[in-house]
Amino acid sequence: MKLTERDKQYIWHPYTQAKTERSPIPVVKGKGAWLTDENGKKYLDAISSWWVNIHGHAHPYIAKKIAEQAKQLEQVIFAGFTHEPAVRLAERIVRLLPGDYAKVFYSDNGSTAVEVALKMAIQYWHNKGIQKTKIITFKDGYHGDTFGAMSASGRGIFTNPFTSLLFDVIHIEPPLPGKEKQSIEQLKAAIGSGRRQPIPNDSQPATRNSQTSCFLFEPLVLGAGGMLMYDAEPLDKMISICRKNNILTIADEVMTGFGRTGKLFATEYLENQPDIICLSKGITGGFMPLGLTVCTEEIYQAFYSDDRAKTFFHGHSYTANPLACAAANASLDLVEKKGFKQSLKRIQSRHVAFAKKLVRNPKIENVRTRGTILAFDLKTKDATSYLNKERARIYDFFIERGILLRPLGNTIYVMPPYCITENELAFVYAEISRFADSLLS
Ligand code: PLP
Prior knowledge:
- The chain is α/β, with parallel strands linked by helices.
- The chain contains 13 helices and 16 strands.
């Protein structure tokens, strides 16, 4: 039986409507920016396989480091035990991040990195004896598919069946170009609405009474929400407002981390550093699942106590899996190599040049770039949305031509591995141009 038939018999794929979508492509090999299927057809992975594969597929150096680690120590319970790859990775991440961070908490993926961050923020206040549980997030945000991460995300097609079970968060507009003021005003109003009734004769400033525990956001690019891009300046203001109001800030850098926005972390564009950072996806170069939640000493200290009740009772079986940490350390070795930053710049400048061409097409709108991400929307009869009817046509067009692009509805984006060559980029752009031109005829 062929692989696709065996697959069909037993496998349920993510984000896939098996009844209407094309069969999955059986991939047998990956190399550089390319995937090869069992018939020898090649696909240029222009979205880094859901944004994780930053150095290219099956990178021999990362593969070697994982193999070495597998022969040494494959897994160990991380409560009561530790190991070199986890310690080394934590040391490096704390050093690389722009803010003043102190501690790394490990988990398995982007959603769990966010779950940990939210629980950390809420328990931080709880441990201090302050009842603050409200959470502010962007209405178009996406933070993952577990219940806490879903609750913190925008409401829509992904979350509809679960609405009644999700906890309430205060959604505000993201500060997209032209909406900065509105977004900041909404943040202020949300903080205001989270205040307790003033206590008579309470001498503490009103802001001390805010019930808002934290503000969670994707810095500079809202990914799954439609590759919506905004500037650092309004976000800086928002973090500063939160700080003045004793509200913790959490940057979800699961997608933006490790070079996506042109700098190693999107928070490098900020002057005010968040209290907590969530990392995953690119951290292992796309080899192993791993999530990190990194926090300041101030947060850690709220848990450090003789009182056992103040412990952070959270963990996963594979917390800080040594193979995943070895992959991440190997990926960081590549990140720290000389050519890494140049490759980000090279892709960025090529995207910007191509974007200038795209804006001339009247069937395309909202052409935007940020670092190694290029995105634009097709003008279609339907409104721009994840369920836009053109989506399947766009996906098929590129797959048939050997390019993996996975549009978010009518939003097409390119987010390649950084090893992509000039010729490979030119190939992707040429096919996008061909598609765009076909819209004109
Ligand atoms: N946060 C952001 C910003 C993401 O883009 C994603 C995934 O796309 C997640 C969290 C969830 O990560 P995972 O799919 O690894 O659970």
